[in-house]
Amino acid sequence: xxxxxxxxxxxxxxxxxxxxxxxxxRLELEEILTxxxxxxxxxxxxxxxxxxxxxxxxxxxxxxGGAAGDYRCVYANVEVGQAGREDVGRAMRAILDELADRAxxxxxxxxxxxxxxxxxxxxxxxxxxxxxxxxxxxxxAPLVLLLDEIDSLVGDTLVSVLRQLRAGYDRRPEGFPQSVxxxxxxxxxxxxxRASSExxxxxxxxxxxxxxxxxxxxxFCAEDVRAxxxxxxxxxxxxxxxxxxxxxxEQTRGQPWLVNALCYEACFRSEAGRDRGHPITAxxxxxxxxxxxxxxxxxxxxxxxxxEEDRVRRVVEPLLSGGEKQTFSDRDLEYARDLGLVAREDPxxxxxxxxxxVVPRELTYAVQAGLVEDVAWYVDTDGGLDLGKLLAAFQxxxxxxxxx
Length: 404
Ligand SMILES: Nc1ncnc2c1ncn2[C@@H]1O[C@H](COP(=O)(O)OP(=O)(O)OP(=O)(O)O)[C@@H](O)[C@H]1O
Ligand SMILES: [Mg+2]
Hints:
Structural class: alpha/beta
Oligomer: single chain
Bound molecules: adenosine-5'-triphosphate, magnesium ion
Helix content: 40-55%
């Protein structure tokens, strides 16, 4: 049937096609509008598939709609510059072309007409600055740029983009964008860029020290998860049992892609789940989780690929084997948290039970999943054995498994 919405598992959400939590409701709107009004440049970051792009696109439409003030807001995905690696010329050509094209599709053709000449005249290390200056001067409303996937750029290219943004900063808003949002997985402060043109390691912070602040997009709260499944129930009549809703939040801890993927699996792929006369149960979600893990979607692959990095393993391995002394630095931990592998809040743990099941399978040494993954349930506050908790947990385990 045409027009039926579903749980989206690829790319940004579109409200007409997908069940969704209103993307702007996921941000503290004032938290993002205030720096825009105050002409600040800032970072919006979150792990993969958290809803960054969905939020940026909604923000763009809000700013262009006039309700929040008079702005010309353009979203661009600078990932197009990634293939150029450290070839700044090639990357800059791709980025300017993307920017001009995005502006053109909003009805602003100015940049599209001028950037090739600017690139010739100013060269790759000046073209972005010059193009943004000329464009801002030619545009009556203050320009707001949303640059997505900023950390897909590397080395010289990233340094060049950051430095060019900084170079025009004092000319805003008449002669440079009023506000720039850089979006990616990491905070620019933490970029440690090995630029081949410079002998020293450049930190993102020093190339972009005009940045006012960093906002982080969080995961869904229990309320968001409930709202999402309620949309499905509202449109199809198929409800989730209360246990299923609880389990959905528990297993994913609200990670937006995981929530959608489990629901899609349970309601649209599973034979039984497609029968709208049957509610979705906790068991159906458990089966969906199993299928998801076996299928190894890109989301899980991208995550487990990171386990090849030493700094990630330094954080994750002791979490799985328990007890071992920790050898990671604060910077390592921050990185694992930015990736979304490790929960943001204490105690230190893998971000959600699904990742906790996938990660050990990926590590080269064999740690039995779940064996000592979470010690909190039998260790007291002094780090000693809590016999009461241990026995209670054993009783529960025995009740559940005694028939075997
Ligand atoms: N507002 C929302 N409501 C429901 N689901 C959402 C919402 N935002 C994001 N998601 C889920 O997260 C997935 C990724 O969304 P989006 O592409 O916006 O995130 P992203 O952080 O930009 O991802 P990437 O890191 O891949 O660029 C969607 O496919 C959907 O499953
Ligand atoms: Mg994105």
